[in-house]
Amino acid sequence: MKNGVVIVGAGHAGVQAAASLREEGYEGPVVLVGDEKDWPYHKPPLSKTFIKDGEAKPQPLRGDTFFSGHNIDFRPGIRVERIDLSQRRLDIAGGDALPFDRLILATGSRPRPLPLPGADLAGVVSLRSLDDARAIRDLSASASDVVILGGGFIGLEIAATLAAGGRKVTVMEAADRVLGRAIAPVIAGHVHDRLVGGGVRILTGTTVSRLEGDNGRVAAAVTSTGERLPAQLVIIGVGVVPNVELAEAAGIVTGNGIRIDQHMRSSVPEVLAIGDVANYRHWATGGDVRLESVQNATDQAKLAARTILGHADAYAAVPWFWSDIGDMKLQMVGLTGGSDQCVVLGDAAENKFSVYHYANGRLIAIESVNRPGDHMLGRKMLGAGFSPTPDEVAGGPDAMKAALAAFQQSEPAA
Ligand code: FAD
């Protein structure tokens, strides 16, 4: 492969794909192109520690010499504008072209825009990039009132962080509870109550009808019920949309993301897609998913590298995710869709409990608050294809560990 592999997007997925190609022994050219000017960085701290501490530095995904040391041609600050499939070439901003033999699209996602009168006022931001986080940090330094539109993970993480820093924070959520449908109501309720206890005001079942400005800067958010909330900073956190436009324009099949098979290949086999932008049929549930997590970006990147090297293994990673909201470390493993029975372990009053989800009598997911041991054991159990009985779960971690060990002993060696 003379032109080698070109990877578009230098986030969690793209950087891991470049690294994995080398780890797997790929010796051809690897070019990593990203449109951000910053050195590739971890995204999760942006809504947590980074905006809390004025001195916090971004956490690099790899060290200074990683790319040169692994013979990876990293080109930051460059936007790919078009894929020419017939010529196997990318058009990049400024008029240059970049040939490829294999292409990995790791273009991620971007904040979903909220069409709203006043959304273009200064002081109205979303959080995706390091630049966005810098803007939030700067704006929050002089803001006393902050309104957050959307009660998802990122919105609530920011709410907890800014409230702990003394801001008066209001979260507006259109649904009747925070954290959407994917998480157990008992956890959503716990997070809600604890945030309220920490001084965050949460308005569920409420939308914003407009933002009002003063000299071009946001000054207030007006709710659907007519309440006027003062705000010097408004953060829009209503989810993301996948960056599919490059693929779509090239005729690659999309649909809530770039459609890929179990080997990360798109409808054009020499073009692969990974991370937030990839939509695939989940190996366990049979449903189509597009997961937005570091785990998914990392594991898909590793598999894409293996596919390019000719391996035939299919994607079967157990999904997991975490979120830090104030003094709550939330950890999820598995997918909760179809959950028809739950077993709760631990005590919400102590801010430490886990919810074990079953579907048709099988354990499918575990959601934990401040019980990292449950999460790690859950990853082992789901990874091994083991489902403890609800009684074994109720017996606590030791009972589950014993049952897992017995299961593994009884399994014929692979
Ligand atoms: P990204 O990291 O978004 O990278 C895509 C890159 O491609 C971007 O740099 C983009 O600018 C670039 N790009 C797009 N189009 C082009 C183009 N045409 N040319 C060149 N470059 C292009 N996940 C967790 O598991 N736990 C958490 O606690 C957590 N917290 C998060 C907090 C925040 C604030 C955010 C924003 C995300 C968080 N996530 C968390 C989600 C996680 O960060 C994402 O799932 C992950 O970053 C996805 O990686 P990716 O490489 O697919 O996309």
Named CATH topology of the largest domain = FAD/NAD(P)-binding domain
Strand content: 25-35%
Structural class: alpha/beta
Mean pLDDT: 96
Description:
It is a single chain. With 414 residues, this protein is of the alpha/beta class. It has three domains: 5-110 and 241-308, FAD/NAD(P)-binding domain (3-Layer(bba) Sandwich), CATH 3.50.50; 113-238, FAD/NAD(P)-binding domain (3-Layer(bba) Sandwich), CATH 3.50.50.60; 327-410, Enolase-like, domain 1, CATH 3.30.390. The protein has eleven helices and 26 strands. It has helices at 12-23, 49-52, 66-69, 130-141, 153-164, 185-197, 245-249, 294-308, 372-383, 390-394, 397-410, and strands spanning 5-8, 30-33, 72-75, 80-84, 89-92, 97-99, 102-105, 109-111, 124-126, 145-149, 168-173, 201-204, 208-214, 217-223, 228-230, 233-236, 240-242, 258-260, 271-273, 278-281, 288-289, 320-325, 328-334, 341-347, 352-359, 362-369. Helix 1 (12-23) packs parallel to helix 8 (294-308) and helix 9 (372-383) packs parallel to helix 11. It is globular. It starts with a strand and ends with a helix. The model has no long low-confidence stretch (mean pLDDT 96).
Key features?
single chain, 414 residues, alpha/beta, FAD/NAD(P)-binding domain, Enolase-like, domain 1, 3 domains, 11 helices, 26 strands, 26% helix, 29% strand, binds flavin-adenine dinucleotide, oxidoreductase, FAD, FAD/NAD-linked_Rdtase_dimer_sf, FAD/NAD-binding_dom, FAD/NAD-bd_sf
